[in-house]
Amino acid sequence: MNVFMIRMNRVIGPKTEDPMRVVIVAVAVVIVTLQSGAAQEPLALARTIDLPRVEGRIDHLAFDGATGRLYVAALGNNTVEVLDVRAGAHVKSVPGFREPQGIAVVPDAKLIAVANGQGEGLQLLNADDYRPDRMVQLGDDSDNVRYDASAKRVYVGFGSGALAAVSPTDGKVISQVKLAGHPESFQLERSGSRIFVNVPTADHIAVVDRGAMKVIATWPLVSAKSNFPMALDEANHRLFVGCRRPAKLLVYDTTNGKEITSVDIVGDTDDLFYDAARKRLYISGGDGYIDVFQNQDDNRLARVAHLSTAAGARTSLFVPDQGRLYLAVPHRGSQKAEIRVYEAR
User: Fold this and answer.
1) Of 6, 223, 259, 328, which alpha carbon lies 20 to 30 A from 107's?
2) Of 318, 215, 205, 211, which Cα lies nearest the Cα of 254?
3) In sequence order, what are the residues at sequence separation of 6 or more whose Cβ sits closer than 8 angstroms to the Cβ of residue 303?
4) Mapping DSSP to helix (H, G, I), strand (E, B) and coil, where does residue 24 land?
5) Which of the two residues, 200 and 19, has the higher pLDDT score?
6) Residues near 237 by beta carbon (within 8 Å), at least 6 away in sequence
7) pTM of the predicted protein model
8) 92 and 79 Cβ atoms separated by less than 8 Å
9) What is the mean pLDDT of residues 128-153?
């Protein structure tokens, strides 16, 4: 209100004889104020892309920068949806999966790796025509997928507790490491050999040496449980872990495995990402919000936005080269299935 009165006084002065002029100027000031506030939002909705005839839960997403294609694991629909984000159009619905969960692009081999929650494990698709290339036998509940371009390995979490390293060119399982429970999100170091793995049923984070494929440490959860999504700020030795019980973000120091701080976040989170260029975290949750946190220099996190989205919209993908966050929205009632594209600013 103080800001409003200051603007009013600057425009019309502290006193006026014309009531109509006061009303017109007041409306103009409100519009300018609202526009100024909107311009400060860290994420702005740029467009939506329909997911026609997609029903049920939507899981993870992957992006191919060379082709501009976004791949969506439509778990409840048993399909992978292909979108052209440059044109803002749905390209194809690829059937033949059993609860697709994790997904990753293998650009140098021109493959798409899709992990199935039911069935035999990891399916590799030709990225040109989306036809099956080969199947990797892992077992049920194949989940999160990551591609290590330097080693040319696909890593897949699966089963009641294991992580596999797979050669995408021939589909062979190179090695496996046993875990204390089913793995959820995991992150690979680029300058080191460690993999950080969320193991919610064991209430810890497993640290795996991917050269030896063995667990070298476990970091206990302190402030919360049910650790599902994860992001890594390798340059500053920070690991961000999203929890559901209660809904909190935990921050760990990767040099010693100690929890540094925790903050409250959106409920039912399933994806979070660190934007290194802007020093921000984006956290999507099924409660229907995206939380944006600014990373302060003194290890403090300040929530700078709590954006309303849609119920069940808990999975997303941040593409740093584009500065875009893609949010998966499932069909629920009058809400249609779609991908919402947000621009970071």
Assistant:
1) 328
2) 205
3) 263, 291, 292, 293, 294
4) helix
5) 200
6) 253, 254, 255
7) 0.88
8) no
9) 95
